[in-house]
Amino acid sequence: MITQMKKYTFLVFHRDYEPFLEQLRELGVVHITQKAAGLIEDNEQLQAALQHEDEIRRLLKQGAPDQLIAERNEVKERISAAQEAAKQAAVWGDFDAARIAELKEAGYTLHFYECPTKAFQEEWGIVINEKDNKTFFVEVESGKLKVEREDLLNYATEIPVPEKSEAAWLQEVEHLKGLLVAANARIEAWQLANKERLEKELIEARQQIDWQRVTLSTDKVAEGALCLFEGFCPIDKEAELNAMLAEAQVYYEETDPEKEDATPIKLRNNWFTKLFEPLTGMYGWPNYNEFDPTPILAPFYLLFFSLCVGDCGYGLALILVGWLIAKEKLRIEMFEGLGPIIMVLGVGCTIVGYLSGTFFGVDIYQAEWIPAWAKAPMFKAWLGDGTGNWMGYDIMMVLALFIGVFHICLAMTVKAICYTKQNGFYATASTWGWLLLIVGGIATAILASTSVLGPQMTQVILIVIASISALGIFIFNTPGRNPLINIGAGLWDTYNMTTGILGDVLSYLRLYALGMAGAMLGAAFNELGMTVLGESPNVGTAIGFALIVAFGHVLNLLMACLGAFVHPLRLTFVEYFKNVGYEGSGKKYNPFKK
Known about the structure:
- The protein is α+β, with helices and mostly antiparallel strands.
- The chain folds into four domains: 5-64 and 193-255, no CATH class; 96-161, no CATH class; 271-277 and 294-382 and 509-571, no CATH class; 399-507, no CATH class.
- The chain has 21 helices and 13 strands.
- Strands 1, 2, 7, 8 and 9 form a five-stranded antiparallel sheet that branches. A four-stranded antiparallel sheet has the order 4-5-3-6. Strands 10-11 form a two-stranded antiparallel ribbon.
- A hairpin with a 2-residue loop joins strand 12 (389-390) and strand 13.
- The protein starts with a strand and ends in a 14-residue tail after the last helix.
- The mean pLDDT is 86.
């Protein structure tokens, strides 16, 4: 639900302006109306404050100044280079680079080569090592100029003289690791000395930015003697604000927001619905004159997510993960604060997975060790013919289409009610016409197919529904306009609705497809594991079975959750919000406070 707001207009003497702002900030309940972003953000002082805030955030995120981070990165790069050099020097065994240099001064130059083992000829040099079908050898050049043999050059590749042996490089790596420990220690010391200070500075910078935005949104009137600005306060905080204003003896006006006002949005929902408010925010907050879609979004998103995952074993795993995150026993930055909603989604997946009869890819409805009473609630037990089909179609596919039809009909119903509340019934005749035609037609078809209505009564009802709907769709869709134009607009609207709704309903098949794909992939990993386990299992095959099944189901769970996050959002943001007429262009309530 959207919290009702009160609009306040403040007129303050310029000498009392800053003390009054301080009082408002202490109270922390008024959302100050800001001017257009371009008029505010171009201010040089505000830009400097924003840059200062960004710098503090960057320092807190990376954990140290650029110099310390660069020093640590340089040491890491040197370690990687030394490890690679040690790997390359390993084929040459233990040697003394200084001794090689002494031999060169004495007139003996060593040339290092590698070539395919099959092509190597003994007269080319001294073999040092053979590895990966390659021969590594050394040619000794002394006295006269080196005589280059054409066959050697065709097959062998000369390698630069190694700077150090493998042992020397590994010793260098250990030395560099000591430098890395020192670099990390300097960063940790810096964090210990500065993190608390920076966090405090960030709060102060944020408050300074808010203060500047408020002052930039204040108009100076009466030649600068008076300061005029507007704000909004939730109705449940109205008494507190009025008491403070009475004590401050400030002139103000309190009114109800007008339709054209940019009234901020504060949602008021129960604990369950509140978990899904971030999803509403991802699309956009409702306008003040709109409705809060979250109470309907929440249960349907939970249902859609659960159908896409469709496995009670995965649901139990999500409950465990969500509990660990909520208790801060498992720290994953991108899931911080999402433990409760993960647990709720896990509960939904567990219930839907049980009803569909799937547990870590195993069809538990077919399992003989499951008692009959435990199978009774499953879809296959009381829907269809007991094999997972209904009139030749998969039960879950039929269920997905039924949910799609119901979801879209619900969206059209909500749209009709909300539009009527905003604009009156006469202005929404077309919306009611489509609602009557679609919902009434479906309801009549269901009653007729179940023999509740006879053929003659069905015909009469359909004629009445079609007649009334046609008036709203083709004649009264835009009050006061030429009827011929309304008929043309109704025909165009009919084409869009016919093609659009059919496509929207078919989009819900993704719920069935994703659930089926996850179940099939989970079953495939189980079958692969059983193949490895074999008919005569031993320790080795048991370990292989455990690794394959564990890796497979973790991978399948991750992919299932990704699809279950994205596709229900798509069904909500596209199919539902389009048919419900939701705009989502509102601004979230953000009170001026410390």
